[in-house]
Structure formats: C-alpha cells, structure tokens
Amino acid sequence: MSDASDADIHEWISFEDDDELRTWEFDATFLRSNYQCIWGCGCQGVLDEPAEELHQGCCSYGAHFVDEDDVQTVVRAFVRTSPEHMQFHAKATKGGFLRAGDGPGDDENGPPTTTRVVDGACIFLNRPGFEGGAGCALHIAAEAAGERPIDWKPNVCWQLPIRVDHFTDDQGHVLSRLREWKRRDWGDGGADFAWWCTEAPEAFSGSRPFYLTARDEIVELVGERVYDRLVELLERPDWVPLPHPVARRS
To answer: N or C: less crowded end of the chain, CB within 10 Å?
Structure first.
C-alpha cells in the first residue's frame, strides 16, 4: 500500500468570477511548484522508449489543432518563417505542412488537423545541428521577429503542460479548471510514453514558481484580470500549498 505522502494529492484555489457566470479552479500545488520545460536539457520525449538524444520533446507526433482559427495562426506564421529559421522549409513549401487528422468532427472534406510529420517528428521541429537552431522553427522565427512565440505556434504547443477544462451545469454556470497536463490527457497513447515531464523530478528544477515563468500562457488562457486575482491568492502571507507529489517523492 502506498504511503499517503506519495499520493497524487494537490491543493486548489477556487473563486467566483464577478463578471461572468463562472467559477475558476486552479491547481495551486502545480502553479507554486518549480516546474520548468526541460526540452533539450534532459527531456526524454514522448516515445515508447527514452530518447533524450533526439531532442524531440513532445513534437514526435505533430501538433493537433483545436479549430480552424488555430490552423490559420500557423498558416500566417509560416508565411513569415524563412528557410534560415526552418530546416524543412522546402518540404513545407512543396508538400505542405498540414495533414488530415482523425480528430473529433473531422470528415473526408474537413480541414487538416495536425502538422505534417517528417523524418519521425513535426515538420516544424529543427533537429540538432541545424544552423538556424534546434527546436521549434515557429518559436525561433517569432523570437527573431521580436514577437511572442505563443502567437505563432499551435495552441497545444504553447499550452503544454497547462490544461484548462470547462464544464457547464444545467443552470448554465461554467466551471473552468486550470491544472497540469497529465498522461491521461493524451488519450490511450499516453500510457505508452516511457516518460512524461510532469511526473519527472528532472523537470521540477526551475528557479521561480511556475505561475510566474508561465505568466504569458496563463494570461492568454484566463485573462489578465483573473490571473491577477490568482496571484493575490497564491501569494497570501504565510500560506504555501502542499508541495507537488514529485517533490514529495524526491
């Protein structure tokens, strides 16, 4: 039987939204943790075997788009991305960078729902050794343009490892819950990952709490007014939420 200290127990912050018929819930344990993305610095990827040397992170299967607006964000970004920033620019220009997917609501004539996979990973992923820099070409091009990468990339790519779920009750009241992205959120395939970052002690190595390092992403998801209220509650004097389960096990 597992010790209680090893259980996946989190503390939460909840408050009513004065401007909407909505309740917000936030995973305080995760947001106050020192989680950081360690792509290229120990991330073992999402394949069924550890593959740190590939530097693929969670880009092995391409990015799934949430809607047509998400697709168009990347279409506009690609137009502004040059070959110096994108290793597979020629392939994307000739054969396209989108492919038909199998997401909910798709049909034979539906829009492409994922980025194309080239040589075992997303077409936008520059491999180690590329002169323009390894990593997401859209991210690199956005920074070169002096803009935010989250305004260039597919939603899933900048939101990970954050997830927001919305639930509406019979009276029309919305519950919006922001939490860490878990294996189960990938569907059946998540169980096959050899490694997942929010379970790994290597990823809990940041110098600042996650709610600060991920400020832009959280604001994009919930709005600045809600984020400011969240910060007030997270920074209450003499209150620290339960440490993250990974930290408790380390």
So the answer is: N
Contact 86, 92 (CB under 8 A): yes
| Helix, strand, coil percentages for the chain (3-state, nearest 5) | 35, 15, 50
- As a whole number of angstroms, the distance between CA 143 and CA 169 comes to 41
Mean pLDDT over all residues of the chain?
A: 92
Residue 51 in tokens: 């593959």
Q: What is the pLDDT of residue 249?
A: 85
What percentage of the chain carries pLDDT values higher than 70? 93
Pair 162, 181: CB distance under 8 Å: yes
Is the pLDDT score of 84 beyond 90?
yes
The length of the chain in residues reads: 250
**How many other β-carbons are positioned within 10 Å of the β-carbon of residue 142?**
21
The string of pLDDT tens digits covering residues 116-129 is: 999 999 999 999 99
CB crowding 29-56: b at 16 or more within 10 Å, else e: bbbbbbbbbbbeeebbbbbeeebbebbb
pLDDT at position 240, please? 86
SS3 13: strand
pLDDT at position 99 is: 87
Q: Calculate the dihedral angle through the C-alpha atoms of 194, 128, 112, 159, rounding to the nearest 10 degrees.
A: 60
Using the structure block, give the residue that is written with the tokens 């491999």.
127
Residue 250 CA from chain centroid, whole number = 24
The residues near 208 (Cβ < 8 Å, ≥ 6 apart) are 34
